[in-house]
């Protein structure tokens, strides 16, 4: 007899008794099962409680390679824009004048930055870095 786990949500059976969640649906409760052979020599999964999951059909066990996919993010900047504010321009963590500062100093008048996005009057100049677009030229 071999030990496997059975997903109560998507009914997948797989060999990873250390798994905490289903590898397929990531939602189901995992139940320990053991495969036993019935009188006709068919293999059927049985839960710890003794309930047979699929008594009339042979389970199909396949091994698929696990592939880790890394998303690719392409950021295309808008043209370089320069600060047009005599006293400088503060960089915020969000497009909001009340958001915390993202940098310890303001951008200086005449300093140029790459702009990746403009949203509701705010220009994103980096990840988590926003400035008021009214002060860019």
Question: What is the β-strand count?
Answer: 9
Oligomer: single chain
User: What is the level 1 CATH name of the largest domain?
Assistant: Mainly Beta
Mean pLDDT, all residues: 74
Share in β-strands: 25-35%
Q: Strands across the major sheet, in which order?
A: 2-1-3-4
Any idea of the CATH topology of the largest domain?
SH3 type barrels
Helix and strand content put the structural class at: mainly beta
Tally of separate domains: 2
Shape: rod-shaped
- CATH architecture assignment of the largest domain: Roll
Topology order in helix (H) and strand (E) letters: EEEEEEEEE
Distance between the termini: 73 Å
List unreliable stretches of 5+ residues. 55-59
CA radius of gyration: 29 Å
| Main sheet characteristics | 4 strands, antiparallel
* Percent helix range: under 10%
- Count helical runs: 0
What can you tell me about this protein's structure?
By secondary structure, this protein is mostly beta strands. It folds into two domains: 3-47; 78-135, SH3 type barrels, CATH 2.30.30. 0% of the residues lie in helices and 30% in strands. The protein has strands spanning 3-7, 13-14, 30-37, 43-47, 78-82, 112-115, 117-119, 122-126, 129-132. The radius of gyration is 29 Å and the shape is rod-shaped. The model is unreliable at 55-59 (pLDDT under 50).
Summary?
This protein is 0% helix and 30% strand. By secondary structure, it is an all-beta fold. The protein folds into 2 domains: 3-47; 78-135, SH3 type barrels (Roll), CATH 2.30.30.
């Amino acid at each position: 007899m071999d030990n496997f786990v059975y997903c109560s949500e998507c009914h997948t059976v797989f060999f990873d008794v250390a798994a905490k969640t289903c590898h397929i649906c990531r939602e189901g409760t995992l139940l320990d099962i053991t495969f036993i052979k019935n009188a006709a020599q068919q293999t059927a999964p049985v839960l710890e409680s003794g309930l047979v999951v699929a008594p009339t059909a042979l389970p199909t066990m396949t091994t698929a390679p696990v592939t880790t996919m890394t998303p690719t993010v392409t950021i295309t900047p808008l043209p370089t824009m320069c600060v047009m504010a005599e006293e400088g321009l503060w960089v915020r963590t969000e497009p909001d004048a009340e958001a915390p500062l993202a940098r310890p100093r303001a951008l200086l008048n005449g300093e140029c930055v790459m702009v990746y996005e403009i949203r509701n009057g705010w220009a994103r100049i980096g990840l988590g870095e926003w400035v008021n677009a009214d002060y860019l030229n």
